[in-house]
């Protein structure tokens, strides 16, 4: 299979990981204010919620979020194809299948990381989704689970999903241990193996492979790209330090565009916040994702404190964001970072 020469493959050079309860539409809108090119992912949405539950509101997003991929959870090819069709019709640029999430809830539904044990089912899901929609179908997976030997199972897994029509893959470069570790521990304790992901790139030179796991700076993302990988997906660091990861990404990773800044992002969020409040939304639903914007900068603590203490109060509005911003801008540039 050849890497399709779409812009989306290029956008996938840097992406923000799907994260439940974190990468909701407000978070994605914020991240988009920091980078025009980075590929954004939704939280995982189960195919059953869309198809059987009719929860189509889970697909709501803003036009400004593009390019944006919908991540689906499930293991029933027919249901996933229906969900993929709904996602594509809602305007998503890519549909991604979750084969990496180890949570109990997800294991009981036979999807997520447990699917690493069943490449035939994953291939059937990919093929069915591929046949249903025109936008790319991609997979996010682990290097293996439990006692699997990744050197053995990962090439087999990848060749089957590629044969089924998977156009890109993101590999979280650590195993998931399905028994005994919480989902949170499963993001830290199993060791990272970037070398293995590199070897997969050598084995599958025409497959667009993104690596995920433990990337904490744009420098590190650049090094991984320089080492021959096609993309880097950043999760927690992009959420906690969005400015560090995203504000220089357009220039440094995509070679076009100017650097953003936390201040510019705040200014750009104001009309969005106003519109959300006018529609009956609450301030904290948006500002909870903005707490890390000034991470490491003087006044960051004041920014976080004002927003976390005030944004849940009835009637909280944009003036609270201005008050929080004053903590950052009032401080001299050489003031001690807090
Ligand atoms: C709060 C949270 C929620 C997550 N939810 C999902 C999810 O819905 N789907 C998924 O594939 N991975 C999910 N993940 C895993 C991330 O996508 C990513 O693989 C993981 O955090 C490792 O990347 P990082 O070290 O850059 O954070 C989640 C991670 C976090 C921290």
* Total DSSP helices: 16
Question: According to CATH, what is the topology of the largest domain?
Answer: TIM Barrel
Helix content: 40-55%
The multimeric state of the shown protein is single chain
Report the β-strand fraction as a percent range: 5-15%
**C-alpha-based Rg, rounded:** 20 Å
The total beta strand count reads 8
Pfam families: Dus
InterPro entries: Aldolase_TIM, DUS-like_FMN-bd, DusA, tRNA_hU_synthase_CS
Protein name: tRNA-dihydrouridine(20/20a) synthase
Site (Interacts with tRNA): 98, 184, 187, 301, 304
What would your notes on this structure say?
Strand 6, helix 8 and strand 7 form a beta-alpha-beta unit. The radius of gyration is 20 Å and the shape is globular. The model is unreliable at 1-5 (pLDDT under 50). The chain has an eight-stranded parallel beta barrel, surrounded by six helices. It is an alpha/beta fold. Helix 2 (25-34) packs antiparallel against helix 13 (262-278), helix 4 packs parallel to helix 6 (119-132) and helix 6 (119-132) packs parallel to helix 7. The chain is built from 16 helices and eight strands. The chain folds into two domains: 7-242, Alpha-Beta Barrel (TIM Barrel); 262-329. The structure holds flavin mononucleotide (FMN). Residues 17-22, 43-44, 71, 98, 100-101, 140, 172, 187, 212-215, 234-237 line the site of flavin mononucleotide. Belongs to the Dus family. DusA subfamily. Residues 16-324 form the DUS-like FMN-binding domain. Catalyzes the synthesis of 5,6-dihydrouridine (D), a modified base found in the D-loop of most tRNAs, via the reduction of the C5-C6 double bond in target uridines. Specifically modifies U20 and U20a in tRNAs. It is an enzyme of class 1 (oxidoreductase). The record marks 98, 184, 187, 301, 304 as: Interacts with tRNA.
